[in-house]
């Protein structure tokens, strides 16, 4: 058993994916043999219930200057963050001369809307190339990992922040105590720290096992975030369930005693109790489902190959690293994956070494089947690629269960 990164309690492992590569490191043939692998295993803390990984990958390996993920590749996510920005401009940032800090701003998908409204702002992100895109969009960005020291430097240079916001990043940070210490150093009195991340409740309900990969060090629930906030001198004062990325939760935390908690906190906690989110048996069932889905996917791909059907992948996601490496799926089963991100095209998936091609390769000619690794963007992708189904093609999904549609 390992020790909980939040409270020091005992962490009970419930699934071991074995040797896995760094999920967002898309390689060239030259890199084969030099890839970094680690043991991807997850467990839950028997004290504070936080779901977390047993081993940590060094942050510089996961988020180098040429980190290839670009948030703005999805029009649904662009709309989501435009709406989110408008919401904060009318609430947390409605006072005189507000200051907005964003942790993990990536290409500026959210930050550019805040800066564009004339609000003082600063993004903090170590991914220099993504940060350059945000800067080209008009935003101010500091290329750095957010932690206590970064926060102190920002506070000294720019003064206190009214809102510290972060999307799909806080759960990536194993050293989260330092992030909370940074938020405490940076926030103005009455300020809020708001973060949204994929939600454990949805991951369990829909068997989204491929949300488990190096970057998702923690899988948050309302219960575990409430305990974590308390431990670090904050209080969870609001929660909102979001439909993005297959199900996410927005958590609002404030300094303890500064804001009364909204009724949604108690409601979601009760829902989590009903859904047995802190029960060991829930994780045992999840582990059984993971193995069953993987077996079925391997069997399906094997029989399609035996029948001489053509199969490709769609979306070179980080999630696909877990699926392809755990299931042993390589170019012999899926000859290529198409992806709209120029930074990924012409490279290969980590560990499984499947070539990545632009979406134009999908139509040239259409395959019989396509495994949708970007299932969280299913609506957007299926609409854009409707000719595929009209030509007789079928999508393969492996969550919540293996099926062709
Ligand atoms: N907020 C965007 C990007 C999420 S990807 C979205 O929701 O789509 C995660 C981002 O967090 C990456 O750009 C990565 O470089 C950044 N990141 C990782 N660790 C960080 C840290 N300690 N401080 C700031 N940014 C970090
Ligand atoms: P995403 O599921 O957001 O992230 P993660 O890597 O965290 O699992 O990644 C979606 C990937 O799918 C990204 O590489 C871009 C690609 N994509 C397309 O190729 N076409 C599309 O229409 C969309 C929305 C995404
Ligand atoms: Zn704990």
Q: Could you please describe the fold and organization of this structure?
A:
The protein has 405 residues and is α/β, with parallel strands linked by helices. The chain has 3 domains: 2-46, no CATH class; 71-280, Vaccinia Virus protein VP39 (Rossmann fold), CATH 3.40.50; 281-404, Rossmann fold, CATH 3.40.50. The chain has helices at 59-62, 75-90, 111-116, 128-136, 148-158, 176-186, 200-205, 222-231, 263-274, 280-306, 319-327, 378-384, 386-390; strands spanning 2-3, 10-21, 37-45, 51-53, 99-103, 120-124, 141-142, 161-167, 187-198, 218-219, 234-242, 248-255, 311-314, 337-338, 356-357, 369-372, 394-397, 403-404. The protein has a 7-stranded mixed beta sheet with strand order 7-6-5-8-9-12-11. Strands 15-14-13-16-17-18 form a 6-stranded mixed beta sheet. Strands 1-2-3-4-10 form a 5-stranded antiparallel beta sheet. A hairpin with a 6-residue loop joins strand 1 (2-3) and strand 2. Helix 5 (148-158) packs parallel to helix 6. It is globular and about 65 Å long. The protein starts with a strand and ends with a strand. The mean pLDDT is 98.
List bound small molecules: S-adenosyl-L-homocysteine, thymidine-5'-diphosphate, zinc ion
- Provide the CATH architecture of the largest domain: 3-Layer(aba) Sandwich
Low-confidence stretches: none
Major beta-sheet overview: 7 strands, mixed
* Largest sheet: spatial strand order: 7-6-5-8-9-12-11
Average pLDDT figure: 98
CATH evolutionary superfamily of the largest domain: Vaccinia Virus protein VP39
**Number of helical segments?**
13
Beta fraction: 15-25%
- CATH class bucket of the largest domain: Alpha Beta
